[in-house]
Amino acid sequence: MNHYDIPLMRSSIPLFKEYVDEIRDIWESHWLTNNGIKHKQLETLLKKYLNVPNITLFANGHLALEAAFELFDFPSGSEVITTPFTFASTTHAIVRSNLKPVFCDIDEINYTIDVDLIESLITSKTVAILPVHVYGNICNVEIIDEIAKKYNLKVIYDAAHAFGIEYNGKSIGGFGDVSMFSFHATKVFNTIEGGALCYRNNMYEQKLNNIKDFGIIRNDVVYSGGNAKMNEFEAAMGICNIKHIDNEITKRRELVYLYRKRLSGIKGIRICPDQENVVQNYSYMPIVFDKYKYSRDEIHSILAENRIESRKYFYPVINDYKCYEDVPYIKDADIPVARFISENILTLPLYGELSVENVNKICDLILK
Ligand SMILES: *Cc1c(COP(=O)(O)O)cnc(C)c1O
Predict the structure, then answer these.
(1) Ligand 1: centre distance to CA 134 (Å)
(2) Which ligand 1 atom sits nearest the alpha carbon of residue 184?
(3) pLDDT class for 2, splitting at 50, 70, 90?
């Protein structure tokens, strides 16, 4: 059980009866996985909701990201430009694909890749850019697109935080060559565990299916694929949750606006502003303490003493992970902004069911 009175997040779940009604067909058909009716139905619903031409579902977001690298079959040791201010998965996917992560620093305002630095990191070995729409703050997709065209690079977006976000009326999943969404229990939309790749080029579909299902096509095995399929129970959870997603995002938006109203304009507190022409999903409530009267760690402790959970997310930066301590080009990468943000950022509780009273209580404690 969670020992906080106010947890950082609560997974969205439908009413118990809704889920039971949804999984009844699974009982009747005994079809538990392998592209069953729930899987097909969820794929159709998500294609429509996300407004993307192609989507392939996966067992989780991380395997989807690894599948994106496998799709392009880059030569081993090729370089991928990415950011260190993200979840472990982003860099691990590069490393586990036998590629080399090259770290680009982040923008001070929205913590996404600093597009002014990308070109200086490109070498003859660079094959792709893996930017992250961190907290749902979208990357500068136009400039990234220009750079990718100029140097003939693939762009794979880590859009794990960006479910449902639109930019200039277009789905964020429609930018770059491929975008990965995560439907993990902690994300704004979940299928318990799950993920997807979205892409414009419909030639990718067959290979992605081969990657996630052992390369089996009917009675033949055409590719040495792995297994990364989403099962019917997960798809059923997604079918239930998609009905409530707009309501969930609306409630979160109100809470984020309340947080902003209470905490903006305070000396030493920095909050991400709304980005222009972006429809947000309000998936996280990050706040940076920059010469505030208390440090990030002090605020974290004050909240914990009051049984309120907050998270140093993302801390540490990937470059400081134990698993990379013997890799000099990772450990010593030049990323001062990412380090500063990582050391001073805190994410605050945010989920649809969080009450206005509790948001006010959290703000009171921070401001006291
Ligand atoms: C959650 C997350 C992932 C991985 O997704 P899973 O579905 O948990 O495998 C990758 N990148 C980022 C930024 C994430 O937050």
Answers:
(1) 11
(2) 7
(3) low
Pocket test for ligand 1, best of 11, 57, 87 (most atoms within 8 A of CB): 87
Nearest CA to ligand 1 atom 2: 160
**Residue pointed to by tokens 């049984």:** 307
Q: Which atom of ligand 1 lies closest to the CA of 60? A: 7
Task: Give residue 135's pLDDT band: very low, low, confident or very high (50, 70, 90).
Answer: very high
Cα(364) to centroid(ligand 1), Å: 32
Hey, which of 158, 183, 283 would you mutate to test ligand 1's pocket, going by the most ligand atoms within 8 Å of its Cβ? Answer: 158
Q: Give per-residue pLDDT as tens, 172-218.
A: 999 999 999 999 999 999 999 999 999 999 999 999 999 999 999 99
Q: Which residues contact 86 (CB under 8 A, 6 or more apart)?
A: 132, 134, 158, 314, 318
Whole-number Å distance between alpha carbons of 24 and 44:
20
Residue range 150-155: mean pLDDT, rounded: 98
- Which of the listed residues 65, 86, 89 should we mutate to test ligand 1's pocket, taking the one with most ligand atoms within 8 A of CB? 89
- Please report which confidence band the pLDDT of residue 3 belongs to, taking 50, 70 and 90 as the band edges: confident
Whether the per-residue pLDDT at 38 is higher than 90: the answer is yes
Above pLDDT 90, what percent of the chain? Answer: 98
> Which residues fall within 8 angstroms of residue 351, CB to CB, at 6 or more apart?
9, 10, 12, 252
Return the sign of the alpha-carbon dihedral for residues 337, 259, 89, 198: negative
Q: What are the residues whose beta carbons fall under 8 Å from the beta carbon of 201, sequence distance 6 or more?
A: 54, 177
Cα dihedral sign, 19-25-30-31: negative
**Ligand 1 pocket, CB under 6 A:** 60-62, 86-87, 89-90, 132, 158, 160-161, 182, 184, 195
Beta bridge partners of 178: 156, 199
The single-letter DSSP state of residue 240 is H
The pLDDT value recorded for residue 228 is: 98
C-alpha 170/C-alpha 200 separation (Å) is 13
Residue 183 alpha carbon, nearest atom of ligand 1:
7
Alpha-carbon Rg of the chain, whole angstroms? 21
